[in-house]
Design goal:
Layout: H1 2-28, E1 57-62, E2 67-72, E3 80-87, E4 93-103, E5 109-116, E6 131-135, E7 147-152, E8 159-165, E9 171-178, E10 186-192
Antiparallel strand pairs: 1-2, 1-10, 2-3, 3-4, 4-5, 5-6, 6-7, 7-8, 8-9, 9-10
């Protein structure tokens, strides 16, 4: 009978050893970090930027030979900041833009932006100053607030008018009217990509 009880004793000792080792490992492990507090809910935009607050997020359109993306921050500190990039077929940047939206003293909205090349050099026409466009008052636009039309404040600017149209849920249509009569106006049709998971 002693030979029968020996394996039981060895098994009991091994089980106890594993339990002690597990207890030591658990007590030596660093305490789990406290769960991060949920981000506070963003306050709804007020004032002039409420007209453009729906732009906040990431937008993307894929063309036949380019990929175009635009990203906007939520209104904060009297400002929204945007980034635009157009990538060529080889994935290199063709156009980069830095944009801001800010309220004006008279209750309007001003859109300022600069174009850059892949080396972050500003385009020659914008080296000294950004392009500046002002929002047409909402009362003059039948589709406000889902659509905001911006007009250049300078007669010599490359872009005469720019329209952000958010009337379709999850879609952003941008119309660019160029000042030069020999250059074709164009449209960009984005979808909201911060709602799409790869």
């Amino acid at each position: 009978m002693p030979s029968c009880s020996a394996p039981r004793i060895v098994l009991a000792i091994a089980t106890a050893a594993v339990s002690v080792a597990a207890a030591v490992l658990v007590s030596a492990a660093p305490a789990a970090a406290p769960a991060a507090a949920p981000a506070p809910a963003a306050a709804p935009a007020t004032g002039p930027l409420a007209r453009v607050a729906a732009l906040a997020g990431a937008w993307r359109v894929a063309g036949s030979d380019t990929v175009t993306e635009e990203v906007w921050t939520a209104p904060a500190g009297g400002n929204m900041t945007g980034l635009f990039r157009m990538l060529g077929p080889d994935g290199t940047p063709r156009v980069l833009e830095l944009l801001t939206l800010a309220p004006t003293d008279d209750g309007g909205i001003e859109l300022r932006f600069r174009h850059f090349d892949a080396e972050l050099q500003p385009w020659a026409a914008e080296r000294d100053a950004p392009l500046i466009l002002r929002a047409v008052p909402a009362s003059a636009d039948d589709f406000a607030p889902a659509r905001v039309r911006f007009r250049s404040v300078r007669d010599d600017a490359d872009i005469a008018e720019l329209v952000y149209d958010l009337r379709e849920p999850g879609k952003l249509h941008v119309t660019v009217d160029l000042a030069a009569p020999d250059r074709a106006d164009f449209e960009l049709h984005f979808i909201r990509t911060d709602l799409v998971r790869p």
